[in-house]
Structure formats: structure tokens, C-alpha cells
Amino acid sequence: MSSWVLPGxxxxxxxxxxxxxxxxxxxxxxxxxxxEAEPWRRWRAGEPDDLTWLRxxxxxxxxxxxxxRLVARVRVFQEPPTEYQLWQLDVGRANVAAGExxxxxxxxxxxxxxxxxxxxxxxxxxxVALMHFEDQQFAGTEIIASPGEVTxxxxxxxxxxxxxxxxxxxxHDLIGxxx
Length: 179
Fold this sequence. Notes:
Elements: E1 5-6, H1 8-17, E2 21-26, H2 34-44, H3 55-66, E3 70-77, H4 83-98, E4 101-106, H5 107-112, E5 120-123, E6 127-134, E7 137-144, H6 147-163, E8 165-166, H7 167-178
Parallel strand pairs: 2-3, 3-4
Antiparallel strand pairs: 1-7, 2-5, 4-8, 5-6, 6-7
């Protein structure tokens, strides 16, 4: 297996340089990224958010999709969703508006389908970036390029995409159930 650990800056370059498709499997109930701390606090307090903190990502997604490249993710949601995941349902609308295909799969369904319990990106169906976290904060990425291993992740990608629902539909259904 070919692998190495990349710090954040080098991983960011992978996110900019993919050629056709970048797909994320996101399965933690909560992420504690420093850039999200204040926006999350504002959301919890019912204060408005101009999404300035998210603008670089949204611009990157919009540029990629304008160039014909796909940026997508499936988020695994607990039942009921964590407070962080509820926040992501609100914030995620901006991701979708920027062109990102964001979908949701419940944790019980993901387990039943045999999908992994670790986060990763799949780039151009040729490289996998396993994401490592410490105390719910991003700590680095391990790159896998071994064809056999990458095939396993591609299969997981296909299964997840087949069973996940679009974020906005999940959000609409969840809000409807909570009324």
C-alpha cells in the first residue's frame, strides 16, 4: 500500500488540483475546526452568519464546477442529528448553491451497508486521502494510491451515492418531522 501523511497545506493542494471528481465521505458527528468555532457559536445563539469564514471553500467549489469538475460529499448523520449536524444542514445550503453535491445517509443505514467509520476523500477515483483527526480536529491526511485499496474506496463511494439522499431533501423531511 502506498501511503504518506500530508499536513494541511499539502492536502489543500490536492483539493485544488483534482482533475475530474473530488468526493468526501464524512462520518463524524461533530468536527471542531478552529475556523468554525465562532460561526457555530453564532448559530447556536441565533445570530446571523454572513458565511465569510466559508467563502474560500464556496469559491473553490464554484470555480471547480464551472470548469466541469465535480465536488461532492456524503455526510453520515446520527439519529437524531447532533447539534453540529443540524448546523451543517443550515450551512450546507450554501455548499449546494455553490455547486457541491451534498448528500446525507443515516448512520444506521451506513452501518447496514458496511460503509467505513472513518473520513476520507476520493480524488479522480485514483487516490484516497484518509483524514486523521485528534479531538475532532483535522490532524493530517494519509494518501493511498494502491489500486486494490482505491478500488475498495470506489466501491464504498458507489454504495454511498446510491443510497444517500440530497441534503436539501433530507433537511426538508427532517424539518417536516420535527413540526
